[in-house]
């Protein structure tokens, strides 16, 4: 490995002591910025469409995410800035699932959030969260416990969503595992004299 590649590994990765994994700062910054911007844009659309609950939640998620990006950029990702994203993503995930979103499209967004959420937690804690969320989702689907009366999915949609969620989650965790091992291997090479 030449010196340019070694510097690139050091500049684009950090060691997350909470997870015991190497993480890509570029990937995290890109994904978290994308999440914050999408929340802001979707919040504006929902606001002008008189979907005030969704707009308020999306604006809050966007503001918290932008604050997390500011913390991560100024103090570093190793500070636990990821919690500025994990909490809003989980909250938005379950709100969209239970409320349905605009014209029952909330489930699509839930799938879109899954890879980023699991990456933030790493493959070990991500697997734990995936298992817990699968159990909670299955319980919600089996009992049809929806706080909003206008929201209900057919059993076919619920079953297929659950399968898609688990499949995407497992794929994301596998990809994260391989990426983490690759970054760790490159960082070990870069540390050699």
In words, what does this structure look like?
- The structure is a single chain.
- This protein is mostly helical and 193 residues long.
- It has one domain (3-10, 22-191).
- Helices cover 78% and strands 4% of the residues.
- A two-stranded antiparallel ribbon has the order 1-2.
- The longest helix has 38 residues, at 106-143.
- It is globular.
- The relative contact order is 0.13.
What structural category arises from helix and sheet content? mainly alpha
Whole-number tally of structural domains: 1
Give the strand line-up of the largest sheet.
Answer: 1-2
Number of strands: 2
Give the integer mean of the pLDDT values: 83
What is the succession of H and E elements? HEEHHHHH
Care to give the gist of this entry?
The chain has 193 residues and is mainly alpha-helical. 78% of the residues lie in helices and 4% in strands.
Q: How do the strands and helices of this protein lay out in sequence?
A:
Layout lengths: L2 H10 E4 L4 E4 H24 L3 H24 L7 H17 L6 H38 L11 H37 L2
Antiparallel strand pairs: 1-2
Provide keyphrases for this structure.
single chain; mainly alpha; two-stranded antiparallel ribbon
């Amino acid at each position: 490995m030449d010196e340019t590649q070694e510097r690139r590994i050091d500049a684009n990765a950090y060691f997350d002591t909470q997870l015991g994994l190497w993480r890509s700062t570029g990937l995290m910054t890109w994904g978290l910025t994308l999440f914050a911007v999408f929340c802001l844009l979707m919040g504006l659309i929902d606001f002008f469409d008189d979907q005030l609950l969704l707009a308020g939640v999306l604006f809050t998620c966007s503001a918290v995410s932008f604050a997390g990006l500011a913390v991560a950029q100024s103090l570093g990702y190793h500070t636990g800035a990821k919690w500025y994203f994990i909490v809003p993503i989980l909250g938005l995930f379950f709100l969209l699932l239970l409320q349905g979103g605009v014209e029952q499209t909330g489930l699509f967004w839930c799938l879109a959030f899954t890879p980023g959420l699991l990456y933030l937690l790493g493959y070990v804690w991500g697997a734990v969260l995936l298992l817990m969320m699968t159990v909670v989702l299955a319980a919600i689907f089996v009992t049809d416990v929806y706080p909003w009366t206008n929201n209900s999915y057919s059993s076919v949609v619920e079953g297929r969503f659950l399968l898609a969620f688990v499949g995407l989650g497992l794929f994301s965790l596998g990809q994260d595992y391989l990426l983490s091992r690759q970054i760790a291997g490159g960082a070990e090479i870069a540390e050699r004299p």
